[in-house]
Amino acid sequence: MPSNDFLLPADLDTAGEFIPRHIGIAPADEARMLPVIGSATRAELIDGIVPAAIRRTRPMDLPPAASEAEALAELRAMAAQNTVARNFIGQGYYGTHTPGVILRNILENPAWYTAYTPYQAEISQGRMEALLNFQTMVCDLTGMAIANASMLDEATAAAEAMTLARRSVKAKSAVFLVAGDCHPQTIEVLRTRAAPLGIELKVSTAAQSLPQLMEAGDFFGALAQYPATTGQVHDLRALAGLAHRHDAALCVAADLLALTLLVPPGEWDADIVCGTTQRLGMPMCNGGPHAAYLACRDAYKRSLPGRLVGVSVDAHGAPALRLALQTREQHIRREKATSNICTAQVLPAVVASMYAVYHGPDGLARIARRVATLTGLLARGLAQMGFETVNDTAFDSLTVRTGDATDAIVARAEAARVNLRHRLQQHLGISLDETTTRADIETLWALFVPAGVAMPRFEVLAADAAPMIPEALRRTSAFLTHPVFNTHRSETAMLRYIRSLSDKDLALDRSMIPLGSCTMKLNATSEMIPVTWPEFAHIHPFAPAEQLRGYAELDRQLRDWLCEATGYAGISLQPNAGSQGEYAGLLAIKAWHASRGDSARNVCLIPSSAHGTNPASAQMVGMRVVVTACDANGNVDMDDLKRACEKHAADLAAVMITYPSTHGVFETRVKELCELVHAHGGRVYVDGANMNALVGVAAPGEFGGDVSHLNLHKTFCIPHGGGGPGVGPVCVVADLVPFLPGHASAASDAAARS
After folding, report:
1. Span 292-311, mean pLDDT?
2. Are 169 and 248 in contact (CB under 8 A)?
3. By C-alpha distance, which of 305, 353, 328, 355 is closest to 127?
4. Hey, which CATH number is domain 115-357, 3.40.640.10, 2.60.120.1440, 3.40.190.10, 3.20.20.70?
5. Matching CATH topology for 115-357 and 547-746?
6. Closest C-alpha to 497, from 106, 198, 176, 165
7. What does pTM read for this prediction?
8. Domain 547-746: assigned CATH number
9. Could you report the per-residue pLDDT of 108-117, keeping only the tens digit for each?
10. Chain center to CA of 40
11. 14-29, pLDDT tens digit by residue?
């Protein structure tokens, strides 16, 4: 029965209410459990497990805990500092309407966002059906034979396309060609990925076009954007034959919404197609998370990175879904894997697939036709006012020659809270999307209209408006013909379909999932609420820094607190999965060695017990993996590690360890291990997969680690989403801070991109 006693002053603080609500072990449970495991108190338990040599001797320097209500109020204040402008920047990020039935019942539903990676098929049939829909959608829209169940983002998908091409073709060249009108961030990621693999990247220019580079014949693959970042819809049909004559592959970064109107790459014999599905229902969210895709011809399927959902049969002979061709992946093939990718973007992929299910082929084509028609109408109005567009074809984007009027137009746009793409010499870019209205078109015309020139009249130009897509490039083939994309048109039907799938799954809304360290997390409802607030969701990643003050404060706090938790000096929030954090951290080590004239240091020592992502990441940065032994209990064999350090003293770059170990043990000699590697010129990479067991107890940056990545879906409460999104911040000691990753398109902005 509730007590009628008045509270003591100490009980008036609400900050402590979060823990008993969300941590399942009550004091009575603890009192029963501790004697069973032989400890009298929690402190005694920790003392018996964590080596004294690595224990933190001071509490973390963090602000006082906030209650859930207080934390939401703080976040609301941060969100209010962001400016939600009308965005026409494009460059791979677009406004979109997330259907309410998908927003509420998938993106905001713990049945979907708390699920684990579908390794156990029997508790993942619903999620895998949604991913099979995703794969089918991608194959249909691109015209390709096979697609995986999502990649991390368009730029890294393009990098994976490059390495897939290299593994798959007969050409022996080390040259990869890239069209200069691909998105800038894609080109930068390609440069980063190519360098350690010995791939020479050649980017086309106005003086030397992509077809001209291909005619020279020295290349194993080429990448073109369709439509280009300028908006131009190039006729790329001849490029596939040109590539194949030289035993090379043609890769295409394609906009899926545009492919409802454009002849798909598969129909003109492209080999690999990649891109993003962001505009299919996922808000921009300042850059992510969004599901990318990667599709290819059937002959390449065994070299395709990422997860694949396949159709099989169960023990009763009934159709069933399961992960297919897993022998390609890092958890089996380790350093011989096709990629280090593990966590991908399952939750955003489910959103994109459901967007296609809900709208169907006719709905998607209608959205695309509206965007394309408004783009053509906008171009005609600009021409009427004397402005010429660089591109004479377009789907959704225009590059406008603005000359000396550029600064004045930008100033008017800023005053009107309109974002244009303006990092172009005497040109401005405009990209339209699903959210564009008649009022937006008229606002854009008003920004450009010169003094004394009449504004175009929307209804006059709209009377005979038409897309700027050449007849020869207009799609005639059917797509999304499967019944799943042609059935669930009403909200009620869609709601019931979504519910039927979640009923086939097991997530944290039903029970704990006793599989792997990835379940060691908490997804409190209050933590998820701000994700879809417009002030966070409708922000373009390349918006001006002054519009992102709330994000900048959020970024600063998170950086400071994660550095305090890990004991490191610096951090980058940019990697959007643990695999990418590993990659960035190893590149930082490699760059540090190179800065000292030690480029020959390329050996990475990895214990045999390590997670498969470790050796896969090491080979991706061009390091040579040397496996060291473990003892009978699975711990690092220090004698064998010492022998390896001595043998490779001249070329040792790093050691990669997981701590606590992959099997959950706090190995007692970890500090000695770090000192041993440092003494032989190497750096220590401490995999943060099990950081959940260290927070507040020990810090890798204090016991000898030089680099760690964190898996925020494991330790710091972001949702796992059935296999993504993930975030993989990479933390480093002071002398490695200069080698952390950056972003070319955000270089002048104060707010970091994650």
Report:
1. 95
2. yes
3. 353
4. 3.40.640.10
5. yes
6. 106
7. 0.94
8. 3.40.640.10
9. 999 999 998 8
10. 44
11. 667 788 888 778 889 9
